[in-house]
Amino acid sequence: MTCRNLAIVLCLVTGMLVCGKVMGQTGQTSQDVDRSQIFRSEPSIRPGEPISQGSNAFGYAAPSANDADLGVQAILKRQEQYQPFTFSASLPYYWTSNVALVPTGGVSDGVVAPAFVFAYQPRLTKTLFGEFIAAQQLFYYNRYGAFNFTSFDAIAGVVYYLPNYHNLTFRLSYDYNRLTTDEFDEFFANHSIIASADMPFRF
Question: What pLDDT score does 202 carry?
């Protein structure tokens, strides 16, 4: 399949979100799942920057009026090698005015939510990357520990860049999300297929 055909196929699936079946809700209410979706961070880590289109992208100086006198001038610089493995850790803090998401009588609390993300993003072609991510986030309430829970994500997909079109980016991925209590007893699991298109704008 040519790059053009690949771009067309990805355009057709852009914006689709197919949610799979929900598994294993054992006595937990829908508020538990709603609460997790409010706090849960997006575990995606972006691959390396798209290929540079600058005048020195191939290791040569930009053309100038003195080229005839100086000859071809190579830029002596270290060529950076793409690193496909990434690990990140963060410690966000949230505050909510309604811990249990009830219509009346809500109480407030703070939530500490350490997150750990490991990603392997191999470069398949010049602008096509694989994307394999494992992410674990823990949610600890300051006063209402009975609401503590954890969220695990396993993601597999591809990311395709179009540098000549303002770095337009297509992403197609499968996401398995599993929610558990703070003792790692599962109460929710979900399978999703996500397709998206992103175009950054500089200003």
Answer: 81
